[in-house]
Structures
1.
Amino acid sequence: MDWNSIWESIKNFVVTDGWQIVEALLILILGIIVVKIVLKVIRSAFKKSKLEKITQSFLLSVIKYALYLILLIIVLQIMGVPMTSFIAALSAAGLAIGLALQNSLTNLASGIIIVSTKPFKAGDYISVNGVEGTVKNIQILTTTITTVDNKDIILPNSTITSNSVTNYQANSTRRINFRLDVAYSEDIQVVRDTLLRVINSDGRVLSNPAPMVRVDNFGDSGICILATAWVDTEDYWSVYWDINELIISEFNKQKINIPYNQLEVRMRTDTPPAPYRELPKRVEKIRTTKQKSLLENILEGELPDTKSLKKSKKKSQEQKKQKKLAKNKKSQDKSN
């Protein structure tokens, strides 16, 4: 082993490339420190802002990875790595990852849209794509909704951004619609005064806008009445149920009839019942056996005697006679 040649190689490496490696390591250590300081400053600035926590977490993650990527490119450039090859390899890897995670990237982009546009927030009661419930949490890829019967439904964010969303708690007040029918014989003014008195008796109903009662349309069996009342969003369902119960009680007190479909059952006596017909008696079918002809017997080598011919002829006549009697009897039973 030539130690002199080895030493010369090490010496040449230290002289030519060693200082680049040391410089790259120093830049790497210094860069990590700078990145941590920058992230700490940004995190403290986010805490003072009004951004949602999910938005803060997402932006911090993006900034963190972007800063480390810039630091890595600087360190590799100091070490003499060709940037063209590195960027080409990075682009190819990004394309492969993008194709493999296409759905996830779609949900990621949808998550960014949700946290930036804020169509709803955690705690809001929403309806989207046939799912209705309270928003439990909003994540980068999915949103969790808790239904009224305490089931968690996890929706991809792309489903939310591609469908219409109804936010029942977006505003501080909501309007309750009461629709009911009254009989055509009722006095509309009395019905209107009764409904207004019932609605205004609840202190949770807002006086501005004032409650309203109007004739909505004319049904098959009654007049359709529409009554409206504005309440705070948090009181919507409790006021809706309470006033419905009070309406039934007050209508009973004022003897206001609510029509409903009725079914009338009658027994017809104008038409006589159909005549009864007795079952016919069973008559066995007479099945005759086919007799071979004289020619068939001759061809088969059998010559029938005259006695058997007379006997078969007599039997055939009797069968025809019985068949005729049965037919006559059947026609007599039918006429009776």
2.
Amino acid sequence: MLNRANTDAAENFFKSINVRLDITHPERFAHFHPTKRNTQIIRSILLGEPSPASIIVAAYGSGKSLTAGAAAMLVRNDEMSRDTLSTITERIAMVDRELGETLVARVELRVRGLVIVLEGNESDIASEIFRQAKECLSSIRRPRNHRGDILKILEAIWRKASEEGCDHIAILWDEFGRHLEALSTLGNTEELLLVQRISEWASRKKHPSVSFGLILHQSFLHYADNLSQSARGDWKKIEGRFSTVHYVEDSREMYELISSVVIQLGGGQKQ
């Protein structure tokens, strides 16, 4: 029988994660156990590898939001998350030594980053990005005569983040498929060009570096049923500007992860 502490751990292990709402609650990520597969997502978000602009494709219930949230916490690296991050980086080092050592050093040096999390169908991307940036960079001001230009707003955020010592900016868009569905339903395909502009901008920034990650359940074209052949071709071109990270765990790693968690919950030791 599980004791109270183990029962709480079990409940946390199976709890769903909302990246935007939970990122400031490190205890909700304490049960995160990395695998070689999901360290690819961490590399994508934190290091911009293999490309600063990426599409993370994973099925429902695969744990992609938990992994993305843990990566976002590692980018922020704030004081209240220190203990949880130390535990997570030690676990990462067990499956990816190089990445783990990089992250352990980053946590110890207290290097900060900026995280912006979009979610679902966003009607005003520029305003939402700026709103979240202002929560972390309180003295930032909107650029004059920006007229809603997403690149002017991003540049203002990037400069201020640099001034405040941030080494990386991660822009995540969770449930991006819902945004694609809305664009497809309304036939508003041109708005997807904003996503292309952000990806191109992110790919050119250094010190601080920038990553732009779209989290999806399927490829772009699975959301394009209502579009003409020409519009589908345009979407395909935009998708091609991103590297794709397919998050599919192999059975061996899943069995090893389950074994590790069962041992942890049962208080036993691995034989």
3.
Amino acid sequence: MTTYYSEYSKVYVSVDCIIFGFDEGHLRVLIGKRQMDPGRGEWSLYGGFVGANESIDDAASRTLFELTGLRNLYMRQVGAFGNIDRDPGERVISVAYYALINVKDYDDNLRREHGVEWVNIKQLPPMYSDHRDMIRKARRMMREKIKSEPISFRLLPSLFTLTQLQRLYEAVNGEEVDKRNFRKRVKEMEFIEKTELIDKTGSKRGAYLYRFNSNTYDEDPIFKL
């Protein structure tokens, strides 16, 4: 068997997945205690090494499916992280991806099986290596994306109130928005459709439920799991 590049040192390539969810008015990220050395017991993102016969996108898709059991997730590449000393074990370059899921769609038994938790992004603990940097960069990307694309609906139930939608925008951006201006903007969004259904869980009067009308918006391609 012919070998090439034998004069160069070898490096490992891994993927790390930043999974965002929205629950109880807070943006949350799925993390767990690392179950391998180095860094065993430290808070960490869920990830794995890229196989010899798979692309980095396929490796990220596989990793996400192993953790969530969900398909057709919204997933985007965040970037490569390759500081020389980022992993004390070996020379490892990691490509990070972020994904958005509805927390209610995630089987809690699967969450416990993998030993991960939904942690408020405002209360992140110290984390292994550069995983906090990955989360920060992913959130910045999501803030920009949410301005131009209706990715927020990946984090909400199929039917939602305008208050829920506003709270989500505030959680992603980390600041309050003016209620009147926000609702004015929503009325201008053709892909948000008002239904005749009313949610009365918050008050006797209730609030109208809305939904995302995919027929009025062609989202750019996403990675299919």
4.
Amino acid sequence: MTLTLILTRHAKSSWDDPALDDFDRSLARRGRKSAPLIARWLVERGYVPEVVVVSGARRTVETWEGMASAMPEAAVLERNTALFHASASTILGVLRAQAAPRVMLIGHNPGFADFANRIVAQPPRHDRFHDYPTAATAVIEFDAESWALVRWGSGRVLDFVVPRELK
């Protein structure tokens, strides 16, 4: 069986209100433009998630809301606060608990960059994969019967993009 992970860091967030708790920061204008661009890129390539798991932070929810309008079908949305500033190991634990074969995770750095680099057998030849900038999105495929069987270094990167590459 083939499993597909769409790993997206939240789109660019706003720092306009320093009094806001980090969990409550919204997307910046650039982030609101990037989210649907990434979604259209995914749809054009046939990468449509069945389940989307966000950290619950406002910027991850808004990233998905910006993407969802460009998706052809509704995915099940799950909020999992364990993804908020999660370590790579915690992200792997969240992923292993999933059942759908096409899962999207939307979360935060530095955990997402670390996770992306550890979960794949070979990183793509892209100068931004290692630091995983805002709205960076990787599509990673696994040969496994379930997410519970996914291990470090077992993924194949099918695609990777950052918003600046899209128009």
